[in-house]
Amino acid sequence: MHEGSVNDMLPVVNFASRDAADAGNYWGPRVIPDYQLFYVASGEARLTVGEEEHRIDPGQFAYFGYDHPHRLQVVRPTEYFSIHFLWNGPSSTPVHPAYGIREVDEAMLRRAGGLHRVECPGFGSVELPHRLSAVGVEPILTRIVKEYRQEQPGYPAMLRAHMTELLMELLRSRMEGGAASRRGRIDVALRAMREQPAKPWTVAELASLCGYHPSYFTLLFSREMGRKPKHFLIHERIKQAKQALLRGEAIDSIAERLGYGSIHYFSNNFKKETGLSPSEFRQRPDRGSDG
């Protein structure tokens, strides 16, 4: 299942707690009306989804959604965080999931739903397995639980902000791990375009650097990066142009250094990608956020 793009993500926290459970405690088999992240701070839990069983150790999450019949069981005395959420919601106000949780039989438990994917423009699609790891997320989880419990003014908006931070940490951890290792197959081409953005790279040249046939290279590149090599090169040029504009570099110098034949062509390309001319971008009050 595709959860959309991180650029459009508006997560909603429906429930958040930090609690403890003794060995033998379990939830399910059941389905839930939203998504859940179950983080083991200490102890051990086990998640059953379909025909798979996942051991959840300290520092790891169990992750599943409404389309995943599951059983979650505590193996050893465990301290945990539990977050119920939606990836996108028109309102940031929590809606407790309790009334939407439904018990199912063992036969339905074995009907596993597909894995979820999230699009990260410029970096490709990230797959989310049922067991996730991330370093240093306990402070974020603690802030989410505190906001949920205290309900101070504006707490739904704060919950949305903290949940966005948590999800991005998980997605970046996936990109730096498994996704990054897969991307290693096209890493030579990525590095070439980043280091020499002015060069008019052809697909054949880039494919040759990686040892692939051009058509297979284009397919592989598009699957991993979410865009074709030509569009990635344009994106990289504009990204470097933004940084140069913020440093105060002259527009004509930027255009020449990035391989544009004229300022006019560079300006048109820049505006097509960003919606602003180079001069308008440089003058924006919030331009520092593009660094």
3D architecture notes:
Pfam families: AraC_binding, HTH_18. The chain is of the alpha+beta class and 291 residues long. It has two domains: 2-181, Jelly Rolls, CATH 2.60.120; 196-290, Arc Repressor Mutant, subunit A (Orthogonal Bundle), CATH 1.10.10. Helices cover 41% and strands 27% of the residues. It has ten helices and eleven strands. The protein has helices at residues 106-109, 138-150, 155-183, 187-195, 203-210, 214-225, 229-246, 251-257, 263-274, 278-283; strands at 2-5, 12-21, 26-31, 35-49, 52-56, 60-65, 70-86, 102-103, 116-120, 124-128, 131-133. The strands form two sheets. Strands 2, 3, 4, 5, 6, 7, 8 and 11 form an eight-stranded antiparallel sheet that branches. It has a three-stranded mixed sheet with strand order 1-9-10. Helix 4 packs across helix 5 (203-210) and helix 7 crosses helix 9. The longest helix is centred in the middle third of the chain and has 29 residues, at 155-183.
Task: Give the helix/strand layout.
Blueprint: E1 2-5, E2 12-21, E3 26-31, E4 35-49, E5 52-56, E6 60-65, E7 70-86, E8 102-103, H1 106-109, E9 116-120, E10 124-128, E11 131-133, H2 138-150, H3 155-183, H4 187-195, H5 203-210, H6 214-225, H7 229-246, H8 251-257, H9 263-274, H10 278-283
Parallel strand pairs: 1-9
Antiparallel strand pairs: 2-7, 3-7, 3-8, 4-5, 4-6, 4-7, 6-11, 9-10
Helix pairs in contact: 2-3, 4-5, 5-6, 7-9
Cα-based radius of gyration, to the nearest Å? 23 Å
Q: Could you say what the CATH topology of the largest domain is called?
A: Jelly Rolls
Listing every helix as H and every strand as E from the N terminus to the C terminus, the arrangement reads EEEEEEEEHEEEHHHHHHHHH
CATH architecture of the largest domain: Sandwich
CATH homology superfamily of the largest domain: Jelly Rolls
| Fraction of residues in β-strands | 25-35%
